[in-house]
Design a protein that fits this description.
CATH superfamily of the domain at 64-258: MetI-like
Radius of gyration: 24 Å
Distance between the termini: 26 Å
Shape: flat
Number of helices: 15
Number of strands: 2
Largest sheet: 2 strands, antiparallel
CATH class of the domain at 64-258: Mainly Alpha
Structural class: mainly alpha
CATH topology of the domain at 64-258: MetI-like fold
Strand order of the largest sheet: 1-2
Order of helices and strands: HHHEEHHHHHHHHHHHH
Length: 294
């Protein structure tokens, strides 16, 4: 029986329903979009086949590369700050008493379940240059020279929006790490304590190595979620000032709907999909390749 189920034919038979559904609902809908990206299209009708001209025009546009720079800035904030902070928060929750742990778990998830519009409006009030929370605090402690118009200055607008995104989803990632920590057998920690390991050594030698599959999942989730960053920008700055805070997804929306160049907008979407697939492949290929068994 085991020999039969381990053959390539049987694997294909059992996987074919899921593969069929994936093809119908994920792959097939992309084909009309790829075809549209090869045309001059206004969203209602095609005005002729233009081949790769849309892709050439998109790549030659400075706004396209500004959007990429902003997108990967958000990805960097999410990975370099978000994942370590999420891991620290998960480790912090693990060592709390049950009552405090329940409180911190609820507090960690609260921002993630809020609407992006609600979160953005709250932070718009924080960033308001005249009476906003941040500038008011800086003025009260004598640092008025540090105040900024956070969402209208080119140097501060993207870090400011990135901070909002980081705050909203850091708790969600922490809960994923916390769930992974709870699956690690207690016997590993007991053996480490008998050997005299301290908290930091236990984290570095046991917890983090045994969370590699969870870390890979959070890495993919955070990266692709950051790549699709759009709603916060739409609510907080509408891509401004100018095109300074546009991301790739916002640039795609702006090109398709605000300028009615659906062919170019779809070309941006196709490029974006290829980038996401490539990043997912690289993470799957090089991160946590060994299967762990407790």
């Amino acid at each position: 029986m085991n020999k039969y189920f381990s053959t390539k034919t049987s694997i294909f038979v059992f996987a074919s329903p899921a593969l069929l559904l994936f093809t119908v609902f994920c792959v097939y809908p992309l084909l009309p979009e790829i075809w549209m990206s090869l045309q001059k299209h206004d969203g209602f009708r095609s005005m002729g086949f233009v081949g790769l001209d849309n892709y050439r025009d998109v790549i030659a546009s400075p706004s396209f590369w500004t959007a990429h720079k902003n997108t990967y800035l958000i990805v960097g904030i999410s990975l370099l700050l978000g994942i370590p902070l999420s891991m620290m928060l998960a480790l912090f929750m693990e060592v709390q008493t049950p009552k405090l742990r329940r409180f911190f778990k609820s507090a960690a998830m609260f921002p993630a379940i809020l609407s992006v519009t609600v979160v953005s409006q709250i932070w718009l009030a924080f960033y308001e240059p005249n009476w906003g929370l941040f500038n008011s605090i800086l003025k009260s402690i004598g640092l008025e020279s540090w105040t900024h118009s956070w969402l209208t200055e080119k140097k501060t607008v993207m870090p400011s929006i990135g901070l909002v995104f980081l705050w909203q989803y850091i708790g969600l990632n922490a809960m994923l790490f916390y769930t992974g920590i709870k699956t690690i057998p207690k016997s590993y920690y007991e053996a480490a304590l008998i050997d005299g390991a301290n908290f930091v050594q236990v984290c570095l030698r046991i917890t983090i190595p045994l969370l590699q599959n969870v870390i890979k999942y959070v890495l993919i989730l955070s990266t692709l979620g950051s790549m699709a960053f759009y709603s916060h920008v739409r609510v907080m700055t509408a891509g401004g000032p100018g095109d300074t805070s546009r991301t790739v997804v916002y640039q795609m929306y702006y090109t398709a709907f605000d300028t009615s160049e659906f062919g170019k907008g779809t070309a941006i979407a196709v490029i974006f999909i290829v980038e996401c697939l490539l990043i997912s492949f690289l993470i799957q290929r090089f991160i946590a390749r060994d299967k762990l068994e407790f």
